[in-house]
Specification:
Blueprint lengths: L16 H18 L3 E2 L5 E3 H8 L4 H4 L4 E2 L9 E3 L4 H10 L9 E10 L11 E10 L4 H17 L6 E6 L6 H13 L7 H9 L10 H7 L11 H17 L3 E3 L11 E8 L9 E7 L3 H4 L7 E7 H10 L12 E5 L5 H13 L4 E3 L6 H10 L4 E5 L5 E5 L4 E2 L5 H15 L1
Parallel strand pairs: 1-5, 7-8, 12-13, 12-14
Antiparallel strand pairs: 2-4, 3-4, 5-6, 6-11, 7-9, 9-10, 10-11, 14-15, 15-16
Helix pairs in contact: 1-11, 5-9
The structure holds adenosine monophosphate.
């Protein structure tokens, strides 16, 4: 009989991956806490229209990859599983009147996202991002803070060779003229472009710089670069960010053809890349300024900036480099028993040990004591407490392979706690 399988692109995380994800996630929250970013937990689904408006109807994320949920009952609204976190964060900023707080409002979240994408290593249909958003400050200083926060997070995990690829994608004042220049550049070869790229040429030529199709890639190599077409304000902003990062000592590579996949980006755009990784696996995350998004979603015009780092890819990179911490093994103390009817008292003692701060479990089986001891050794326990038929306890030190005389409960529990403290 063929049983159920997890759906394609949706993974079970078993050990050691489950602990690795937890560890990388904990470090993300800690980095955000340390920098004064307030935690925010957002719903896993939003109105589909929110993503259509924020991310843009022509983006792959909305046009091809959105998981929509059928409206239920009286609720005529179509929801969608979130494909990114920024739209929800901005929706929350507006909804909760965060504009009345000191600006910028610094927010952090770790979010499970869903995109109907072709699964492969490092690309899944459910994945997790560490997201940072700073809403309400248009100056280059906050760009420096946010870019360096993500870079430092990755470096401190051990990915010390992470690179920041930096660009400016301009603003509503200067980008349209550049886009026309770009359109002209690709129009002369439009017959050679794939069907998808021809439609990109019509709707959003910037996306052609992102294309993986050979004809577009070849033509993109000689495309005009946006940093030569910025307005004075965007150019000054970009220069200030570049100079500031040099002062901080963040290594930056100018990437004049870097455009991020989403419509809402303005000015500063960047990616965190690991050199030497295969395909997309080295793309750990990216960010950008999105000065028009708050207004686009119905708020007062408010500049903002943020990044998203893919937790799954970070874990893959750490794993490939042997940088994941060892998974903590089984419990330090196992409570075994000679008589089958001592099971309840074993469970009680294990609970007492845990309450005192040790890791402990009871052997709840009725098998022979020899088998119980073998199980404790296999789990990597440091000590076993054996419940004797008369209710006294025997402490066995598995590291030294020595055993004390049976003694009263309180004394043995205290001795076991000392033992694991010294040897743990
Ligand atoms: P994006 O939101 O597309 O700019 O992606 C930001 C980061 O999220 C990427 O650099 C990846 O690390 C991660 N990411 C994006 N899509 C996926 C996916 N389908 N599976 C795993 N990680 C992803």
């Amino acid at each position: 009989m063929s049983g159920f399988q997890s759906p394609r692109g949706l993974r079970d995380l078993l050990e050691p991956l489950a602990s690795a994800h937890g560890w990388v996630t904990d470090r993300a929250w800690a980095a955000a806490d340390a920098a004064g970013y307030a935690r925010i937990e957002l719903p896993i689904a939003e109105e589909s229209a929110l993503f259509e408006r924020a991310v843009g109807g022509t983006s792959d994320i909305v046009a091809k990859e959105l998981y929509r949920l059928e409206p239920r009952g009286d609720d005529a609204i179509t929801l969608a599983l979130r494909p990114e976190a920024t739209a929800g964060a901005v929706r929350a900023y507006i909804q909760h009147g965060m504009r009345s707080q000191p600006q910028p409002v610094r927010l952090a979240t770790v979010a499970q996202l869903f995109r109907y994408d072709r699964p492969q290593k490092g690309r899944y249909r459910q994945f997790t991002q560490f997201d940072i958003e700073a809403i309400g400050d248009g100056g280059p200083g906050i760009d420096l803070e946010v870019i360096e926060l993500g870079a430092a997070y990755l470096r401190e995990l051990g990915l010390t060779d992470v690179q920041v690829h930096l660009n400016s994608v301009g603003c509503a004042a200067c980008r349209p003229a550049y886009v026309e220049t770009l359109r002209a550049h690709f129009t002369s070869v439009s017959q050679e472009l794939s069907e998808v790229d021809q439609s990109r040429l019509a709707t959003n030529p910037l996306r052609l710089l992102d294309s993986k199709e050979p004809a577009a890639v070849q033509r993109a190599a000689s495309a005009p670069v946006i940093t030569d077409h910025l307005c004075a304000e965007c150019a000054a902003h970009y220069a200030a960010v570049t100079a500031g990062l040099a002062t901080i000592g963040t290594a930056v590579l100018p990437a004049p053809r870097l455009v991020r996949g989403l419509d809402y980006y303005t000015r500063t755009a960047w990616e965190y890349l690991l050199p030497g990784e295969q395909g997309q696996q080295g793309a750990l995350g990216g960010g950008g300024r999105y000065d028009g998004l708050v207004e686009l979603l119905g708020g007062t015009p408010t500049p903002a900036i943020g990044f998203a780092i893919g937790i799954d890819r970070v874990v893959l990179a750490l794993e490939a480099r042997g940088l994941l911490p060892a998974v903590s093994g089984g419990p330090a103390i196992v409570v075994a028993g000679i008589e089958p009817d001592s099971v309840a008292s074993r469970v009680a003692i294990a609970g007492e040990l845990r309450a005192a701060g040790a890791s402990a479990r009871a052997d709840v089986s009725t098998r022979k004591i020899g088998k119980q001891l073998e199980g404790a050794v296999r789990d990597g326990a440091l000590a076993v407490i054996i419940v004797e038929p008369d209710g006294r306890l025997t402490l066995r030190d598995l590291v030294k392979a020595s055993q004390a005389e049976p003694a009263e409960r309180g004394g043995v529990i205290a001795a076991a706690l000392r033992l694991v403290q010294n040897e743990g």
